[in-house]
Design goal:
Two copies of one chain form a homodimer. Chain A is an alpha+beta fold and about 120 residues long. Chain A has a single domain (about 1-115), classed as Arc Repressor Mutant, subunit A. Chain A is built from five helices and four strands. The longest helix of chain A is centred in the N-terminal third of the chain and has 14 residues, at about 25-40. The first copy, chain A, is elongated, with a radius of gyration of 15 Å. Chains A, B: One of its GO terms (molecular function) is DNA binding. Chains A, B: This is ArsR family transcriptional regulator. Chains A, B: InterPro entries: ArsR-like_HTH, ArsR_HTH, HTH_ArsR_DNA-bd_dom, HTH_MetalResp_TranReg, WH-like_DNA-bd_sf, WH_DNA-bd_sf. Chains A, B: Keywords: DNA-binding, Transcription, Transcription regulation.
Chain lengths: ~120, ~120
């Protein structure tokens, strides 16, 4: 089962809002900040980069613990924040969880920052 | 006096690193995450958008408190985080502090997220 919460899609009030494209209302700012909050942790940034650099763009949680030097529950906690923010998807296969980055979510977040 | 800490410049180890461009080391991830942490708060996202939308791209702190509904010390605290992250500059003129967004810093952060 794949769990993912796509963020900043067309149905999202912040889909096309940018930081420098006009004064944002509270809802738009909340949507934008939610993703950046998930990205505002060095372990989570490393985890995303490790997953993106993995064969086939997919990584087993069993291969993520050693590079970041953290326990599996801690890595799992960080990954749940990234999945909740729509930045990664999670698929359980047998004993292990496998993760993929959602490039569209990273690109959407990037667009929110680009000068308009 | 203008205070600003340009981030993600050529002298920064994370200047050209991207989240999906290969496994990041701890220092690169730290540099990237630091800026996103500053952006991971809805009030700070709104403040940046309000400043960017102001006449001449500059806003007095005296004009920022009412739109976000917060006291001046609280707004000042949020702004200090944005200045420390290199996302805004601060200039004291007489009684008031004036802020500008640093578009290059937003663009650098955006590039760190774009698919490579």
């Amino acid at each position: 089962m794949t769990i993912g919460l796509p963020l900043l899609t067309a149905r999202d009030s912040a889909c096309c809002a940018t930081v420098t494209g006009g004064a944002l209302d509270a809802d738009q700012a909340e949507s934008i900040a939610r993703v950046f909050k998930a990205l505002g942790d060095p372990t989570r940034v490393r985890l995303l980069s490790l997953i993106a650099a993995s064969d086939g763009g997919e990584a087993c949680i069993c291969d993520l613990t050693e590079p970041v030097g953290l326990s599996q529950p801690t890595v799992s906690h960080h990954m749940s924040k990234l999945v909740a923010a729509g930045l990664a998807t999670r698929e359980q296969r047998g004993r292990w969880a496998y993760y993929r980055v959602v490039p569209e979510a990273l690109d959407s977040s990037a667009r929110a920052l680009l000068s308009s």
